[in-house]
Amino acid sequence: MPSRNPGAMAQDWEPVVLHKARARAHDLRDPKAVNQALRTGGQVQTIKKFDAGLNKKPGATDLNAKKLDEAAEPAALERVPIEVRQAIQKARISKKMSQAELAKLINERPQLVQEYENGKAVPSQAVLAKMERVLGAKLRGKIVQK
Question: Model confidence over 34-73: pLDDT tens digits?
């Protein structure tokens, strides 16, 4: 047990003052704090922000964005040419395969084969190469019709 000093002890008669923590900036912006200040007659600062709530900038940027979009991307994506569509169908039918069977053999979805045959798909060289391998028909480059 610690020993106490038996000597004279001095008393401190200085007052101790406890203060509330100062309000932080984000606490002052709280709607509850603003309403409390208004009720008690405290000082409230209001600032009008320029173009607040309009979610719009001057009209020149809209035109620039449109021009940039048109310059960066073509208007329409390339689709499967009719010669390729017909070649896929002829080769698949000559092998007596369904679209689902062809899709399973090339490890793709049946919808993809359907899109290629309908001309709705954007051609992919990798998919065309898989179809060439399975069907044994030339689908890329110059296609010779028989």
Answer: 888 889 988 877 777 666 666 665 555 666 777 777 776 6
pLDDT attached to residue 130: 94
Half-sphere exposure for 18 (CA within 13 Å, toward CB): 0
Half-sphere exposure of 52 (CA within 13 A, CB side): 4
Task: Give the per-residue pLDDT at 4.
Answer: 65
List the alpha helices (DSSP H) in 5-137.
25-28, 31-40, 60-72, 82-94, 99-105, 110-118, 125-135
What is the C-alpha separation between 86 and 115, in angstroms, rounded? 13
What is the C-alpha separation between 60 and 124, in angstroms, rounded? 38
Residue identified by tokens 């399973």 is: 104
